[in-house]
Design goal:
Helices cover about 35% and strands about 15% of the residues. By secondary structure, the protein is α/β, with parallel strands linked by helices. It has one domain: NAD(P)-binding Rossmann-like Domain (Rossmann fold, 3-Layer(aba) Sandwich). A seven-stranded parallel β-sheet has the order 5-2-1-6-7-8-9, sandwiched between helices. The two termini are about 30 Å apart.
């Protein structure tokens, strides 16, 4: 097979389950060595709406899935809320694999609340996960990418980071996602600005977000009953597309996972890279501010 990522190392944060796991599997299917990271090797306890719950999925499971499919994966646990652990992560990746070519900033946490009722801890934690951590990991990875002569950074965005549809939908009135959405909007702008700063170093920086939402173990409780979620394979494929051409050809995009493959007529593969999935047109109810080929 003509693999697209042979010889490359990818670090995917938040890859014990859900979107991160799907991205890790897809990159591994193209012959990348994938370093997966999350808070621990085993399922973790999460606080959601002030209540403790166990979120299923683990790094060990992700590594096992990749290896059973013939890929290569290494688990390096790191709590990205811990300053010391996150400061060591990129160096640990380089030590384990010899370098870092691709960084996917996917890890996050979502606990929604109205502005009136949100406490400062929730506000700070949201900013920490979705802006500070991508900033710090990108800052650590760029020197290694520059030394290697190329690199790709993909930040996982969100259509909530775009302006809400008017007249306002009931979701916008009641979801409590304003701070989450605001930080995702900041992440989009951060990515576009960083793309400009490092383009001449042949480092591409792009954003990929779900066109609608992916029903992951962590997000399931936040999606309304009957919500038409999208398969993770379309997002994983879009991330792959952002990691395969030089920065001069593709950087600074904010792209969405149903719109981009549909508009570019890109085949979307299963996570093991062996089968082509049906073309999936973005639904009419998706945010109309999404540009088909990215912005």
């Amino acid at each position: 097979m003509n693999y697209r990522l042979t010889g490359m190392t990818a670090l995917v944060t938040g890859s014990s389950r859900g979107i991160g796991r799907g991205i890790a599997q897809r990159l591994a299917s193209e012959d990348a060595t994938v370093v997966v990271t999350a808070r621990s090797n085993t399922p973790v306890q999460s606080i959601r709406n002030g209540e403790s719950q166990i979120i299923e999925g683990s790094l060990d499971e992700t590594v096992d899935l990749i290896e059973k499919a013939g890929g290569r994966a290494i688990a390096i646990p790191a709590d990205l809320e811990d300053a010391e652990q996150r400061s060591r992560l990129v160096e640990a990746v380089v030590k384990a694999t010899g370098g870092i070519d691709i960084l996917v900033n996917n890890a996050g946490f979502a606990d929604y609340s109205s502005i009136e009722k949100m406490n400062l801890e929730m506000f700070d934690r949201t900013v920490e996960h979705y802006l500070r951590v991508p900033f710090l990991l990108s800052q650590a990875a760029i020197p290694h990418m520059r030394k290697a002569g190329a690199g790709w950074i993909v930040n996982i965005g969100s259509s909530t980071g775009l302006s809400p549809i008017r007249p306002f939908r009931e979701y916008n009135k009641t979801s409590g996602d304003v701070i989450y959405a605001s930080v995702k909007a900041a992440l989009h702008r951060f990515s576009e600005g960083l793309a400009a700063e490092v383009q001449d170093d042949n480092i591409a920086v792009n954003v990929v977000g779900p066109s609608t939402a992916v029903r992951t173990p962590g997000a399931a409780a936040l999606l309304p009953e009957g919500y038409e979620a999208e398969p993770v394979e379309y997002l994983a494929q879009t991330v792959l597309e952002m990691c395969t051409v030089p920065a001069a050809e593709r950087t600074g995009l904010v792209a969405f996972s149903l719109h981009y493959p549909w508009s570019k007529e890109i085949p979307v593969m299963t996570l093991d890279g062996l089968e082509v999935l049906p073309r999936l047109e973005p639904p009419e109810w998706a945010n109309p501010s999404i540009k088909p080929a990215g912005v």
